[in-house]
Design brief:
The protein is an all-alpha fold. α7 packs parallel to α11 and α8 packs parallel to α11. The protein starts with a helix and ends with a helix. The relative contact order is 0.11.
Length: 240
């Protein structure tokens, strides 16, 4: 039995009220729940309300009926707990984390065997050597600029199109870049404990770190663009 547009919209609103904040997670849950509800209505001969409540519980959302009147069971049952949806979102985070880590390492191998990229990489290293030799005090800020490129890039896409906002796919695609930034930032604060200011720090350290992580940065930029294009197509198709 196929659900009406009104019933599908009700399920979508119900997911929003249950704080499923990522739109791409909500779409996946919506497809799954609509299919499960239709199956239950067809195979078990039950009403839409009964089927939806069964599916809601099936996700692990807790429901205590004690003290709830029969005419309020459907309303209270759907919104009493959203713990199952929270677990589902956390599981998706883990899956996407693994997915993007695999993509990153795969692309890293490809990049390091690309003549075009290796030429680009050599130019970058020579540029940093030049900075270190003639403008050593600028090494920290130059390295910082290189390593925060993914942050600027992701911010650009965030404001460019609303498909990236509240998207778990896009959020997880940025995680590896944030890890690189965290390592650089942590190292800076460790050095800060032993030096009074940035100018006194061993600038060669920032040169090495920036050059070492540059291939990862380049890959992150490409992954961002790919995820952005995929998200944009899905968002425009399903939510526009």
């Amino acid at each position: 039995m196929k659900l009406t547009k009104e019933e599908i919209q009700f399920i979508d609103n119900y997911l929003i009220k249950n704080e499923v904040k990522f739109w791409d997670v909500r779409l996946e849950l919506l497809d799954h729940i609509v299919s499960a509800v239709e199956d239950k209505m067809t195979n078990d001969g039950i009403s839409f309300n009964e089927a939806l409540l069964d599916v809601h519980r099936g996700f692990g959302n807790q429901f205590i009926e004690f003290g709830v009147s029969k005419d309020k069971i459907f309303e209270k049952g759907l919104y009493q707990s959203n713990i199952g949806f929270k677990k589902f979102t956390r599981q998706k985070q883990k899956e996407l984390g693994r997915k993007y880590r695999k993509i990153t390492w795969k692309q890293l191998k490809i990049k390091l065997t690309s003549v075009k990229f290796l030429m680009e990489y050599i130019v970058l290293i020579l540029f940093f050597v030049f900075i270190y030799k003639y403008f050593p005090k600028a090494c920290f800020f130059t390295g910082l600029l290189v390593l925060v490129l993914p942050t600027f890039y992701s911010a650009y896409y965030y404001f460019k199109n609303k498909s990236t906002r509240k998207s778990l796919n896009f959020a997880m695609a940025t995680s590896s870049a944030m890890a690189v930034w965290s390592i650089y930032n942590l190292s800076f604060y460790i050095l800060k404990e032993n030096y009074d200011n940035v100018a006194d720090m061993p600038q060669i350290y920032f040169v090495i770190v920036a050059c070492l992580f540059y291939p990862m940065i380049r890959i992150n930029l490409e992954v961002y663009k790919k995820v952005y294009e995929e998200n944009k197509r899905t968002y425009n198709l399903k939510l526009s």
